[in-house]
Specification:
- This protein is mainly α.
- The protein has a single domain, classed as Up-down Bundle (Chorismate Mutase Domain, subunit A).
- It is about 75% helix and about 0% strand.
- The chain starts with a helix and ends in a 12-residue tail after the last helix.
Length: about 110
């Protein structure tokens, strides 16, 4: 195989990997939106039942379960930071389930 052919093969492989990452990113965003919809529904139901919007014990248990060490992928500290950020967003949604979502993706 010539150097030119190897370079094309490498470029194709890189493009394939990037396309797979793009697909994963889209799936992650879809799942985050789906989770937000469920959080809204839970928040509305809790409000109807007169329950507090937040459940600190459940949040702690979720954080421990989700940030448990894994053998691959993200490190435990990075994963914990990502989950903490997501939970802050979901807390706002749970506290005000009828409020329209605002904000935009940073550029």
């Amino acid at each position: 195989m010539s150097q030119r052919d190897e370079a094309r093969s490498d470029d194709l492989h890189l493009a394939t990997l990037r396309a797979e990452i793009d697909d994963l990113d889209a799936r992650i965003v879809d799942l985050l939106h789906e989770r937000a919809a469920r959080v809204r529904a839970v928040g509305a139901r809790k409000r109807a039942l007169g329950l507090p919007a937040l459940d600190p014990a459940r949040e702690r248990a979720m954080a421990v379960r989700l940030a448990a060490p894994r053998e691959r992928g993200l490190g435990q500290r990075d994963l914990a930071r990502i989950l903490a950020f997501a939970m802050r967003s979901y807390r706002r949604i749970a506290a005000s389930p009828d409020e329209p979502l605002r904000g935009r993706f940073p550029t």
